[in-house]
């Protein structure tokens, strides 16, 4: 990745960023993709580029405003639902409304499903498709795209396999940290907390984590707390009330301490939770869903030791054994047993090893600081603008 450098004025660009139909920007209701592109947009604007975000309306936000040097336009979106086919249908009218308010630009960044099909190529600028979800065949529909930007090497390989004729347009650029890494001296004040922060959804492995924690021998778990933070409502991307109630029943059968915390959409508050925790467990079972794992990287920037499932996207920024640990699943070991083994292993590590691993994770996260990642995106924008 390139380091920060001020671009000459002749290379200043007009950059439009079109989000999906379900969450507003700034990310007042969560969303990793929304948080990442909000941070990137502000950094682009700080360097003199003209940036406009288009996203879903929210009751607490005006339809149009300019904050700092970034313009925000919001149009009527939709509430998220669990059915992915219905999600696509709900996003269709949102993209049509966004098209009506979208100004001309040099670059149009979008992860909205219909935008690469419905937006005219002539005046929207170079179409920069952000593949923020696991691709399921839709990329071959995006003939107008100048770039397919993916956040991890594993998604790059999958994308190239789906669009071999356009494989040269696929490029890996990661998400940035949306905040500055914690100060090194703050890494010495860890509590006996195991944290999960993310959507409370079946695909995230939260149920297996709760079951494993509840059955962990008391002599190992003594003094430790499992803290779970995130949205459970379906319209916020969670598993809904039935899933929450199911987790509640599991809680009643366990004998170790668990704190359930409502979603923290305030980024400062979320960072404080990560700074307190010693371990960050992310047992995602979304084999066809995870593309990067921004929450894991953010936890690492706070000195949390990541313990993650065996999904290839995590290997882009975690060297297992040095900066974190992997849940070793196999045909003979299910997720719950893998989590149980990992919990027993990491809790009983020597304190010096916990500290060394936390510092190693923190050091690795600094490779993804906003200024460095934003420069890589700007360089790529210029590359595709100069291609034709």
CATH superfamily of the largest domain: Glycogen Phosphorylase B
Any guess at the CATH architecture of the largest domain? 3-Layer(aba) Sandwich
Overall mean confidence score, pLDDT? 92
Number of domains: 2
Tell me, what's the shape?
Answer: globular
> What is the first-to-last residue Cα distance?
24 Å
User: What is the CATH first-level class name of the largest domain?
Assistant: Alpha Beta
CATH topology group of the largest domain: Rossmann fold
Percent helix range:
25-40%
Could you outline the blueprint of secondary structure elements for this entry?
Blueprint: E1 14-18, H1 32-46, E2 50-56, E3 64-67, E4 70-75, H2 84-101, E5 107-110, H3 115-118, H4 121-124, E6 126-130, E7 147-150, H5 153-162, E8 170-172, E9 193-197, H6 206-215, H7 218-221, E10 225-229, H8 240-253, E11 258-261, H9 267-276, E12 279-282, H10 294-301, E13 305-308, E14 325-326, H11 335-347, H12 351-365, H13 370-385
Parallel strand pairs: 1-2, 1-5, 2-4, 5-6, 6-7, 7-8, 9-10, 9-12, 10-11, 12-13, 13-14
Antiparallel strand pairs: 3-4
Helix pairs in contact: 1-13, 6-8, 6-11, 10-12
